[in-house]
Write a structure and sequence with these properties.
Layout: H1 3-19, H2 40-54, H3 68-75, H4 81-87
Helix pairs in contact: 1-2, 1-3
Length: about 90
């Protein structure tokens, strides 16, 4: 896993932990949003939070993400090297 993907996963874990009773350490790439009890409204709020954090707009996606890995893939392109250095 490259640095951008790792950082994206960390951001997604932290955000999901705010919306669920699941600790961030128990959220993995293959975790499903259904297992985490994330509904469509919560998913929208989560994506808005990630957009705000990254200072970008995630374009409309054809299908709503179903797994954590899909959210990570959506936001990883918006992470730059400065974000990674700041987090370290």
């Amino acid at each position: 896993m490259n640095a951008k993907t790792e950082h994206a996963l960390t951001l997604v874990r932290q955000a999901l932990a705010n919306y669920t009773d699941t600790p961030a350490s128990d959220i993995h790439l293959d975790s499903t949003l259904a297992d985490l009890q994330i509904d469509s409204l919560t998913l929208a709020e989560l994506l808005f939070e990630l957009e705000d954090h990254l200072g970008t707009t995630i374009s409309d996606v054809a299908q709503a993400p179903k797994q954590v890995a899909e959210i990570v893939a959506l936001i990883a392109p918006f992470i730059d090297d400065q974000d990674i250095k700041t987090a370290a």
